[in-house]
Amino acid sequence: MSRLPRFLAAGLVAALAAGAPLHAQPTAMRAEFAAPFAAPFAAHTEVIIDGRMWSCVGNACTTPSSDPRPAVVCRKLARKLGPITRFTTAAAELDEAGLAACNQDRK
């Protein structure tokens, strides 16, 4: 009977060790949209656009991303907060034409 508790303890340690990297990955692999603006914000600002919380400090705003349409997200942000000078995702950056389209309806 003394083998069973050791076996369970060894299994628990193995399961915890194997599960640790799974919990660390979302933070390390967290994708983000980032948008610098032409003018800085007077203070730290948080704004919700289409259910997405943007945190703005200095002259840039960031938000966790899961939206596959960065051009649409950029355009909605520019409409609400003003001209964006650059728009990046974890995988890419809007080119000059994409950025011009993003800013076309800005306030």
Structural class: alpha+beta
Low-confidence stretches: 7-29
Counting DSSP E segments of at least 2 residues, the number of strands comes to: 4
N-C termini distance: 74 Å
* Share in helix: 40-55%
The major pleated sheet works out as:
4 strands, antiparallel
- Overall geometry: globular
**What's the helix-strand series?**
HEEEEHH
Number of discrete helical segments: 3
Mean pLDDT value: 78
What share of residues are in beta strands? Answer: 15-25%
Placed side by side, the strands forming the largest sheet appear as 1-4-3-2
> Any idea what the radius of gyration is?
21 Å
| Count of domain modules | 2
Please describe what this structure looks like.
With 107 residues, the chain is α+β, with helices and mostly antiparallel strands. The chain folds into two domains: 1-29; 31-103, no CATH class. It is built from three helices and four strands. The protein has helices at 3-28, 70-81, 96-103, and strands at 32-36, 45-49, 52-57, 60-64. The protein has a four-stranded antiparallel beta sheet, covered by helices on one side. Strand 3 and strand 4 form a beta hairpin. The protein is globular and about 30 Å long. The N and C termini lie far apart (74 Å).
